[in-house]
Amino acid sequence: MLAGDIHAEDLAALASEEAGVPFLEVLEGWTGQGPGEAGMGAGGAPYPDHPKATAMSHTTPTQADRALRQLWGRADWKEVLRRPPQRLSWRPPYTDERPYCTRTNREGAWYCETHGWMRGFQPCDKLDCETCYQRVKARRGIALFERFGGVPCAAFVFTLGSELRDRVGVEQLVLLRRRIVSLLEAWIETRHVDPGGRGGMIVNFHPCGEGPKPTTDLSRRPDSRSFLPHFHALVPNMVWLPPTPTAPAGGFRPFDLRLSKGDLADLRYEWGEALRELATVLDVDPDIVRVNVNYGYRTEPDKIHNRFAYDARPFPGWRAGGMPRSLASTHTYGLAAPNVGAELAAVAAAWRVLVHGSVPEDQGKQCPHPGCTNKLEQALDGLGRPLFLRHGGPEWSRQGWAWLDSLDELPATGPPDVTPSEQHP
C-alpha cells in the first residue's frame, strides 16, 4: 500500500484492529513540501539568515557542548573518538569449491512426487560465507521490504573521506552512525514535518564498495579489500505528528522527500559540520575534510526492494576479518526500532502497519530435475523437526534437528507428516 492510497478510514480500521490506537487519522491535503531552495553561501556555508547560523550566533559554549553531546548520543563522545581505533580488516571468506555451500556438513531429505527422495546440502547462511552471499542478501532484503517497503523511501549515502577513514575504528564508526541518525532526524523535522513529528529510519554500514569485476567466468566478488567506509540510510515516507489545535488526536502523514538542489546542498553542509567536529577531535585539519552525500528516491516496489537488499547485503571478507555485528547488522531507529518506549508503543505499531510491504508467498524449493515443476517437500519427524543426514561424525548434533544415517530409513513415499518447506530455494 503506497502512501497516496492511504485514507483516514483505512488507518482508523488498522489502528483499532491491529495497533489499538482508536483516534489516529491520516491528515490529507498536505503536500509534504519543504521550504524550497535553501540559501547557500560560498563553499557550502549558509547565508547569515540560515537557521543554523542564526542559532549558533546566540549559543553559549555550554549550550553548544550540550547540543553536541545530544547529537553524538553520548556525554563522553570526544573521549570515545580519541580512543585507539580497533581497525577493520579484510580476510579471505569461506568459499566452497562447489557451486553450493557444504559448510554445515549436513544434507536435508527432500521428496518429489515424480522423482522420489533426494538429498540436498543445507547451506550455512553465515555472514562470512561468500558462497551463501546471494542467499543472505535476498533474505535480508525480503525481511526489510516486508517490514518497511510499503511506502516510498528516500535513500541517503554518507561517505567518510580518505583524510578521516584511517583514523577510525569500530567504536568511532558506531558513534558516527548515531551522529548521522541525529543529523537526519533534526534535518527532516526542521524542513519537512511539524516539530515533534516522528518517523523511522533504517541504517546499514558498508566497509567498502563492490568487489572488482571478474576476469574469468566467476561471479563478481561481493566486497573489495579497500577500506572505503560509508553509511546507507533509508527513510520511509510516513511520519506521525503529535496533537495540534487542528488535529487534537494527532495523526499520520505521508511526506515527500524529493529533494531540490538547495535541499541536498543544505544536507551536505550538515554532514560537513559533523565531519568537521570529528576532524577537530582527531586533530585533523577541518579545512581539508571532503563532504560526500548521495541521495535517491524510490517509489516503485521493485526498486524499493532492490534498495533494501543492496543496503543490507553482507560483506563476507570483512566479517571474516572480525567486523563485529554492531557494524555488520542492520540498525533501526525512531518508530522503526523494536523498542520505542511505552508512550510511543501504540503509535509505532500503527506506523508499522502503514509502512508494511507485501511480499509474494514463498512457493518452496523446486525440483532440480530438468523440466520438472514439482515443489519439493522436506522430510520432518513426528515432532515436526527437519530430518538431516549425518555428516561429520555422530557426536555432532544440535537441538531442533533429527538425524538419519541414510535415505533408506525413509519410506518409499512421503511420510504423512511431510510439509512444504519454508526455506527459500
Question: How would the global form be characterised?
Answer: globular
Structural class by helix and strand composition: alpha+beta
Mean pLDDT: 76
The main β sheet shows up as:
6 strands, mixed
Residue runs with pLDDT of under 50 for 5 or more positions: 1-51, 53-59, 214-218, 413-425
Question: What is the number of domains?
Answer: 2
Helix content, binned percent: 25-40%
Please provide a brief summary of the model.
With 425 residues, the chain is of the alpha+beta class.
Describe this structure in words.
With 425 residues, the chain is an alpha+beta fold. The protein folds into two domains: 3-31 and 44-88 and 128-355, no CATH class; 94-125 and 361-425, no CATH class. It has helices at residues 8-19, 51-57, 61-72, 77-82, 133-148, 162-165, 170-192, 261-281, 301-311, 316-320, 325-328, 345-355, and strands at 25-26, 107-112, 116-121, 153-159, 200-206, 230-236, 238-241, 251-254, 292-298, 331-334, 377-378, 387-389, 402-404, 419-420. Strands 2, 3, 11, 12, 13 and 14 form a six-stranded mixed β-sheet that branches. Helix 1 packs across helix 12 (345-355) and helix 7 (170-192) runs antiparallel to helix 8 (261-281).
